């Protein structure tokens, strides 16, 4: 089996991947706008350990050569080289995982090119290494997604029983702090009501999230609140993270 799962294949949950990545996999399968990419499975991390691509020295994790991990992925597993720079993020999950547990926080690596074997290998190893300090066993799945050249980005809190979503938005081109506002929740086929184009696209994205992950839908049985991270590139408002809250 390939150690890489494309987002939208709806294979993440069956593979044992945690909620951070499996929710994005399901969202992409259901047609929500998720950046192109996939999940490098925990099983490849185990393969790298067993075959000497990475080695443990106490609490440290090192690789055998600067390009060894990416070369093995490319040559032995036909890992797809994404054309655009990618973001590599930890999608680690404790074993077992609880849907609304606080998220695990680990550093990501951004604007990485998968064709640059040394840089790509270093990025994977650095993120895997961050899990060494965690006190509990983890699946060390990684999210690898194409970077979105955002004009606006931020978070949204979407309450299950509310009428409005709470938005924090900022432009990555400026140093201004995020501004916070609310957006009415759209129902059924109601047209967006926001004035700014990005906010109109965001309203539609959030409606799609609620439809996709409402009660008895999605990959978890959940009827609570959602926290969403989004990026708008001027044409599309992309879903880059979703998690259950409460």
Distance between the termini: 36 Å
Structural class: alpha+beta
Residue ranges: pLDDT <50 for 5 or more in a row?
Answer: none
The major beta sheet can be summarized as: 5 strands, antiparallel
What's the gyration radius in Å?
19 Å
Estimate the helix proportion, in percent. 10-25%
DSSP strand (E) fraction?
25-35%
- Domain tally: 2
Order of strands in the sheet with the most strands? 1-2-9-5-7
User: Would you report the number of β strands?
Assistant: 14
Please write the string of helix (H) and strand (E) elements. EHEHEEHEEEHEEEEEHEE
Any idea what the CATH architecture of the largest domain is?
Answer: 2-Layer Sandwich
> What shape does the CA trace take?
globular
Q: What is the CATH C-level name of the largest domain?
A: Alpha Beta
Summed over residues and divided by their number, the pLDDT gives a mean of 90
What is the overall number of helices? 5
